[in-house]
Design brief:
InterPro entries: Glyas_Bleomycin-R_OHBP_Dase, Glyas_Fos-R_dOase_dom, VOC_core. It holds the Pfam family Glyoxalase. By secondary structure, this protein is of the alpha/beta class. It folds into two domains: 79 residues, Signal recognition particle alu RNA binding heterodimer, srp9/1 (2-Layer Sandwich), CATH 3.30.720; 71 residues, 2-Layer Sandwich (Signal recognition particle alu RNA binding heterodimer, srp9/1). It is 20% helix and 35% strand. The strands form two sheets. It has a four-stranded mixed sheet with strand order 1-4-3-2, with helices on one face. The longest helix is centred in the N-terminal third of the chain and has 12 residues.
């Protein structure tokens, strides 16, 4: 049997989030972002060594912080340099649900010149999410015009 080098049921690129308390993070992503947990591999101490969730067609991998592997949660660095963009059906409802579940607001949802309504938050594990809903189809030319103040 031949093995495909790129699994058919995975996207070409998937973020890998290192967190403190991966079990709680997986549960939060399921409850708040509507993710589906598809895999969980425990460490000997019971913590989650590796977990995977699916949100739409995307796979997000989640693992417990492991200093011996150089895998650190955002708090180790004083914050995160990476953001995740997630399109949802109702950005205002999803944003409120996230705040109610312990996320911290960075920017409330607002209509943007590129046609999306976007709000930015930090999840309880230190990862930045831009939650968005498309509210208007805007051409690239119109985006450039709007964003340049024209």
């Amino acid at each position: 049997m031949s093995v495909q080098p790129i699994p058919a049921d995975y996207p070409r690129i998937s973020p890998y989030l290192c967190v403190k308390d991966a079990a709680r993070a997986l549960a939060w992503y399921v409850a708040v972002l509507g993710a589906e947990e598809i895999m969980r591999i425990p460490r000997d101490d019971g913590a989650v060594m590796h977990g995977e969730i699916r949100i739409g067609g995307s796979v997000v991998m989640v693992g417990e912080e492991a200093a011996d592997y150089g895998a650190f949660a955002p708090g180790h660095f004083g914050g995160t340099a990476v953001s995740l963009m997630l399109y949802v059906g109702d950005v205002d409802a999803a944003f409120a649900r996230a705040l109610d579940a312990g996320a911290r607001e960075e920017r409330p949802p607002a209509d943007q010149p590129f046609g999306d309504r976007v709000g930015t938050l930090l999840d309880p594990f230190g990862h930045r999410w831009h939650l968005a809903s498309r509210v208007e189809e805007v051409s690239v030319e119109e985006m450039v015009r709007r964003m340049s103040g024209g």
